[in-house]
Design brief:
About 20% of the residues lie in helices and about 20% in strands. A 5-stranded antiparallel β-sheet has the order 1-2-3-5-4, with helices on one face. Bound molecules: adenosine monophosphate and zinc ion. The site of zinc ion has 5 residues, from α1.
């Protein structure tokens, strides 16, 4: 198993786990781009958004809901925040395990790319 996020799920790579349940894990991005930069991942290895199946839709919904809850917990739900999913090379996806970026705590760029 050489997927870095699967190794975090398995506890083989240390991370500060902010939340976890039977399906989802959330932890801080190791190279934060904003004061709040959290990654939310399914425990199941899904390589990218392009590999999402019908059966994965509930966990995807729960990941988005968790992002909102972590934004609240982090005190940025009023100031605002952004959820980002990079899919594939042109989007800059470097870790091939589906993840949601939660970004906030500063004014984010207007540009989406
Ligand atoms: P992406 O470009 O969407 O694939 O983003 C992958 C993100 O994972 C990057 O922002 C990295 O900084 C982050 N990352 C890579 N390895 C780790 C790790 N061990 N712990 C936390 N974040 C990581
Ligand atoms: Zn994985």
């Amino acid at each position: 198993m050489d997927c870095i996020f699967c190794q975090i799920v398995a506890g083989k790579v240390p991370s500060q786990i902010l939340y976890q349940d039977e399906e989802i894990v959330a932890f801080p991005d190791i190279r934060p781009l904003a004061p709040t930069h959290v990654l939310i991942i399914p425990k199941k290895h899904i390589p990218s958004l392009a590999h999402l199946s019908e059966a994965d839709l509930p966990v995807m919904g729960r990941m988005v809901k968790l992002a909102n809850q972590l934004a609240q917990r982090g005190g940025i739900s009023q100031s605002g925040y952004r959820l980002v999913i990079n899919c594939g090379g042109d989007a800059g996806q470097i870790v091939p395990h589906l993840h949601l970026h939660l970004l906030g705590g500063r004014r984010l760029s207007d540009a989406l790319g």
